[in-house]
């Protein structure tokens, strides 16, 4: 079985990119070990609360953010980082050639029920030498040189693309290494499974109402087949399921906050997942066009997301184009 470092070497990843990806892997192993200690580590609960010893507890997403920041700042290959937990970008090494955006703990509301969460990351190259600003991060997702996530589930998995397909690695806890367990991940074009937060149904736009209504109508409706539904409430776990066994995931625009185009963040949720899904043969769209073609306007920008099985994404988009 091949380790992450050996595979990056075989993939001809540049030395600096390999250093960066190994550094992310080490940071995520550290996060995984904190998560596994759960309540015993005294880290569950809200930031600002005190534990039984009277020490201030930090929320795990704050801890995960600090861990990633520390490792990336020390790596020497990262110019700057952007995180869901940081208002502005954080400068790292002047000599670094990479920009890293991440969601340190996606699905963090799952922590307190001991359910799946993950770290999502997106990597761009930069030539910005002198000053760096958030403007340097505002590149379309197509420019990503690597993207992936670490899923903290029954096993810890790293799912990665460097632009040449998607590979899955599983953490071998005995030796502390991510080992390659699946290559050439591929999403079937058709599916009978979808993921959406149904409780928001009344707030969706009319095309999404019609599309989901037709899926629910099953074999008696216009789609002529029954669909199953799943919702983990952590994008990282829902996307992992789609990479493993297919399906469609959507977090659509809704009318409650019309000025917000969606819930999910472009730079560290939609773009990295979009790259993984496309690299596995699926599609990743908003209701307007491919996610990876969006010119970002802000590092914390939100977008609607429709991704997964190619034919099912097309079917969903068809409702949005229909008069
Ligand atoms: P948190 O990380 O704040 O828990 O949000 C997770 C998330 O951004 C995404 O991972 C899920 O798909 C989505 O929110 C779940 O949202 P609902 O609360 O509507 O289920």
UniProtKB/TrEMBL annotation:
It comes from the Bacteria. Its cofactor is Mg(2+). Gene3D superfamilies: 3.40.190.80, Fructose-1,6-Bisphosphatase, subunit A, domain 1 (3.30.540.10). SUPFAM superfamilies: Carbohydrate phosphatase (SSF56655). Substrate binds at residues 106-109, 197, 263. Its EC number is 3.1.3.11. Binds 2 magnesium ions per subunit. Residues 187-317 form the Fructose-1-6-bisphosphatase class 1 C-terminal domain. Mg(2+) 1 binds at residues 84, 103, 105. The keyword Metal-binding applies. Pathway: Carbohydrate biosynthesis. Belongs to the FBPase class 1 family. Homotetramer. This is Fructose-1,6-bisphosphatase class 1. It comes from Dasania phycosphaerae. The gene is fbp.
């Amino acid at each position: 079985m091949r380790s992450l470092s050996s595979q990056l070497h075989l993939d001809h990843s540049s030395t600096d990119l390999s250093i960066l990806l190994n550094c992310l892997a080490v940071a995520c192993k550290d996060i995984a070990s904190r998560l596994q200690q759960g309540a015993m580590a005294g880290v569950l609960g809200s930031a600002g609360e005190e534990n039984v010893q009277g020490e201030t507890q930090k929320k795990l997403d704050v801890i995960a953010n600090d861990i990633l920041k520390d490792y990336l700042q020390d790596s020497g290959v990262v110019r700057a980082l952007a995180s869901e937990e940081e208002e502005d970008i954080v400068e790292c090494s002047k000599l670094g050639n990479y920009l890293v955006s991440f969601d340190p703990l996606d699905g963090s509301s799952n922590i307190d029920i001991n359910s799946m969460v993950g770290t999502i990351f997106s990597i761009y190259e930069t030539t910005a030498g002198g000053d760096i600003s958030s403007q340097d991060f505002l590149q379309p997702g197509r420019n990503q040189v690597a993207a992936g996530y670490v899923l903290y589930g029954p096993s810890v998995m790293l799912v990665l693309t460097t632009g040449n397909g998607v590979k899955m690695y599983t953490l071998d806890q005995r030796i502390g290494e991510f080992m390659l367990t699946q290559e050439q991940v591929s999403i079937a074009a058709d599916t009978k499974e979808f993921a959406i937060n149904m409780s928001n149904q009344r707030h969706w736009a009319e095309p999404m109402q019609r599309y989901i209504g037709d899926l629910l109508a099953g074999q008696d409706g216009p789609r002529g087949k029954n669909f199953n539904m799943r919702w983990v409430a952590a994008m990282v776990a829902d996307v992992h399921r789609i990479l493993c066994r297919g399906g469609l995931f959507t977090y659509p625009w809704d009318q409650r906050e019309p000025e917000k185009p969606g819930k999910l963040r472009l730079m560290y949720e939609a773009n990295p997942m979009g790259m993984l899904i496309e690299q596995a043969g699926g599609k990743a769209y908003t209701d307007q066009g491919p996610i990876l073609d969006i010119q970002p306007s802000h590092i914390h920008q939100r977008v609607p997301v429709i991704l997964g099985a190619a034919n099912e994404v097309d079917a969903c988009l068809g409702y949005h184009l229909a008069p």
